[in-house]
From TrEMBL:
Gene3D superfamilies according to UniProt: 1.10.150.130, Integrase, DNA-binding domain (3.30.160.390), Intergrase catalytic core (1.10.443.10)
A GO MF term: DNA binding
Family indicated by similarity: Belongs to the 'phage' integrase family.
Protein name: Integrase arm-type DNA-binding domain-containing protein
Keyword Secreted in record: no
Region listing for Disordered, in residue ranges: 402-424
Keywords attached to this entry: DNA integration, DNA recombination, DNA-binding
Domain of life: Bacteria
PROSITE patterns: TYR_RECOMBINASE (PS51898)
Length: 424
């Protein structure tokens, strides 16, 4: 049978009539012209002796040349005993499956899964711990893994991320690895991933040997107050460091302290359990010197929620800002605001204060569970006496520092506070 009988001009010029009619192009291909003006390409073929009709598509969406190409492709399928319409349906089904798979992959991307994980565990973490976890995921993991389906993330993708964390310190990578492990466990339980690749990375990161916190010597304590007087950073940062020293609190506890936690009549600082590491309410007696620090702070920040707000106006200051300020004082290796806790504990024990009172002041949890069950005393009167004696000791150290022959401002003092200001 002759082929290619039609031309583009003939197809375009075909007019509708009262009844449908065909314009043959040969080889079984024809154009069906309907009374409503539509023009449809059809191809007639046989399989197993039975005549079948394959709908190629409408004109002009499918031009004459495309219709012939589709006819030739369909003929190859028929030679294999495949109906072209069945093949088209199979291709369509596969395309739909591909799209659905792609959609599922997007819904199970690391960004989606990690966000769902964070929402799931938020209530079980203290605010500070949760913010640290969320910050690590956003800072270290999201930039590299966000768009990848979690089921496709393996050692190849994770290793360079953890290696990069080493630049931020050994513990940064260890914490991030722990976050990843928790996210994968979350995904496996929900059928979003089949395996957790984290255990196979055992040994990639080494936990650094633990180092006890430094205890400040009497000379370092005097140096601290000399440098604090020469401090050129934000005044609230210097006041925060003073409050940490006077109360032996954790730096994070001072950083997120709120005005409504302070009772000035009773001279106590009451922190709710949800903000404490041990998960229980903590009452800290305030010495006269600690009260004075807060009074000095009033004209600076009293109008807000936090004693030490973040410079951006959102939330509270960061412990890093305090660490930078104290590190710039060059007091010695491993000296951070947290050192005041070990320094206070050492001093109080040397002075013969009751160990239970010291541990309660530090908000430590009793290791003996039986003893912890019965020992509910907060020993406030003993601790009030102890903290006033500690404050007097620090005041004497500051007075001695001022009276020494050393210059009140070292060359490095002008630089103190630059890093703290950058930390916010």
């Amino acid at each position: 049978m002759p082929k290619d009988l039609l031309t583009e001009l003939k197809v375009r010029a075909a007019k509708p009539e009262s009844r449908s009619y065909k314009l043959s192009d040969g080889g079984g291909l024809f154009l069906l012209v309907k009374p409503n003006g539509s023009k449809l390409w059809r191809w007639k073929y046989r399989i197993d002796g039975k005549e079948n009709l394959y709908a190629i598509g409408p004109y002009p969406d499918v031009g004459l040349s495309d219709a012939r190409t589709e006819r030739d492709s369909a003929r190859q399928l028929v030679k294999q005993g495949i109906h072209p319409s069945h093949d088209r349906q199979e291709i369509k089904r596969r395309n739909i499956e591909t799209l659905e798979e792609r959609k599922r992959a997007m819904e199970s991307s690391f960004a989606k899964v990690s966000a769902a994980y964070l929402a799931e565990v938020k209530a079980s973490y203290k605010p500070g711990s949760y913010r640290a976890k969320e910050s690590r995921i956003r800072k270290y993991l999201a930039p590299k893994l966000a768009e990848i389906p979690i089921s496709e993330i393996g050692v190849k993708e994770i290793r360079p991320v953890l290696e990069a964390c080493k630049a931020h310190g050994a513990w940064a990578g260890i914490h991030v690895k722990g976050d990843l492990n928790a996210i994968f466990e979350y995904a496996i339980v929900r059928g979003l991933a089949d395996a957790n690749p984290i255990p196979t990375l055992r040994g990639l990161l080494k936990i650094p040997p633990s180092q006890s916190k430094a205890v400040l010597t009497a000379e370092q304590t005097r140096a601290f107050y000399r440098e604090l007087r020469a401090y050129r950073g934000y005044p609230e940062t210097a006041l925060c460091l003073r409050l940490i020293a006077l109360t032996a609190c954790r730096p994070g506890e001072a950083a997120d302290a709120e005005w409504n936690e302070f009772d000035f009549e009773e001279q106590v600082w009451r922190r709710p359990g949800e903000k404490m590491k041990a998960g229980r309410d903590h009452v800290c007696p305030l010495s006269d010197q600690a009260i004075q620090v807060i009074e000095d702070l009033r004209p600076i920040t009293e109008g807000g929620r936090y004693l030490f707000p973040h410079r951006s106006g959102k939330g509270f200051t960061t412990p890093n800002r305090l660490s930078y300020a104290m590190r710039d004082m060059n007091l010695g290796p491993r000296t951070t605001p947290h050192c005041w806790r070990t320094t206070f504990s050492t001093w109080a024990n040397e002075q013969g204060f009751r160990p239970d009172a010291i541990e309660r002041q530090l908000a430590h949890v009793e290791s003996n569970k039986v003893r912890a069950t019965y020992n509910k005393a907060i020993l406030l009167s003993q601790r009030r006496e102890m903290m006033q004696a500690w404050a007097d000791y620090l005041s004497a150290a500051e007075e001695a520092a001022v009276n020494t022959s050393e210059s009140a401002s070292k060359p490095t003092s002008k630089k103190i506070g630059a890093r703290a200001r950058r930390a916010g």
